[in-house]
Prior knowledge:
Elements: E1 4-10, E2 35-36, E3 43-46, E4 52-55, H1 67-70, H2 72-89, E5 94-99
Parallel strand pairs: 1-2, 1-5
Antiparallel strand pairs: 3-4
Amino acid sequence: NFCSIKDVGKFHLNGEASPGWFDSRKFGFSNTKFRYNRGHWKYFTTNEDGKVKEYTSREERLFEETEDKHFATYFLFDRGIDQMTNAIDRDEKFAIVLSIPDPHGPNQVRKPYDTMY
């Protein structure tokens, strides 16, 4: 029986692509749509075509009201949950690797956690 193996998040690959979202090398994974190679990205969005756009911590002002959807940790968890839900809905056997890049320099924590401790 086939098992779909999904990879979501940061995966240090060989090569210079940054962020390298659509690397053609699968490394044994059947779904790598939300896997990226390298970079210190803190925020992500998707456009109408489902392509991911990345932003650095210098662009945090763009996400002041939507950090819970676009901050790297939350964005990647949501994509992982979406992939699991879709697999379950299709009665598909699957495994998922969810690689969260945080904490990572620059050491930035989203609000309200940035002032709690």
